[in-house]
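Read as amino acids, tokens; as here:

___
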Amino acid sequence: MRSDLTYPSHDLGLLLRHWRGMRGASQLGLALDAGMSQRHLSFIEKGRSVPSRHALASIVQSLDVPLRERNAIFLAAGYAPIYPETAWNAEEMQGITRAVDRMLRQHEPFPAVVMDRYWNVLATNASSPHFFGLFIDMAARTKPRNMLHLMFDPEGMRPFVVDWDTVARSLIQRVHRELIGGVLDERSQTLLDELFAYPGVDPSWRQRGSDGSAPNLPMIPLGFRKHGKTLRYFSMVTTVGAPQSVAAQELRIESMFPADEETEVLHAECMSGGPSVA
């Protein structure tokens, strides 16, 4: 779903009506959830009443608005943003970044990457560039690298991916499943448009239907061809629980695991004999 709203907006009523529509909430239902009268909410949406900070916080909480977009709503109401929008590795994020660094190190020798909400790579463990460097020249790809572009680009990992159509379609569906707040914002839509601009990407994948994966598997394995053999992995995504900053909410750590014992052996062989790429 493409949003007709471009952030930031200075129209508080427009923002609230937009999010109420996205959540399929009636004015009465939202008013009850937020602990106010429908009349008061109606006045706020029409610009006839300025909500208190507490009332506005109740509204955005009831609508499960993502933290970045909550800040836009508070600004539109004339209040200072509540949630910090500092970088993911800012000083106040040290507790989280230390935990992330520990997770990355402990996941060796398998790839693990830290990404933002748009799949841009923020950090990796040593095994990640080493692994992908077995297939392509990672040094030739400019930073910040984007994992989805890496997988969809015919000059990236795409030629090495087994059953690429199935994998690519599942990645498109993951974009929708993992949207912050369940909303396809403008930048997410732009990212999807860029992916669909690659040759051979089926427009029908925009539909959120079955991904065609084998019914006897608990996940869609991500297979890579190397020296005539196939390495199969699956990934697990870690997010921050109860985030209170934009960066913390949008941070994701994706860790790749071997899907079978054969891959675990082949992975060790490839990593010990392949070139190390910075």
